[in-house]
């Protein structure tokens, strides 16, 4: 009786998928497409209590921006495919939300009055504190998002530096 079987071949470096991720204080931030199956229950539970808030009117925008806490705004176009930064933003907003940092979204296409007021024409990340714009990244990269949020979490808005 022949009990031969096909042994599992070790993966070659070409077959291995390396996950690119951002880390914020040791917490990995993976693009949602790669981790949704792993953390589906956790993300659903967390997103129900925290995460980004959609801003749809100019009064709400003014109230949030003029507040004492840090406000991270993601101006995105919902009619386009989500970028890596959008996916990282959603994941980060679902667990890095704190009593001093809040996350907000504005749809550039649908909320034209808000994006015009903020002088935003394309996907942009903006950090506000005490009614002032602290940092702005047009067409942001995930690492710029990490940098912006880590500065806000640490209260380091006076330090300069850009990517």
UniProtKB/TrEMBL annotation:
Alphabetized InterPro entries for the sequence: Thioredoxin-like_sf (IPR036249)
The organism's place on the tree of life at top rank: Eukaryota
Organism placement in taxonomy: Eukaryota, Fungi, Dikarya, Ascomycota, Pezizomycotina
Name of the protein this chain belongs to: Thioredoxin domain-containing protein
Source species: Aspergillus flavus (strain ATCC 200026 / FGSC A1120 / IAM 13836 / NRRL 3357 / JCM 12722 / SRRC 167)
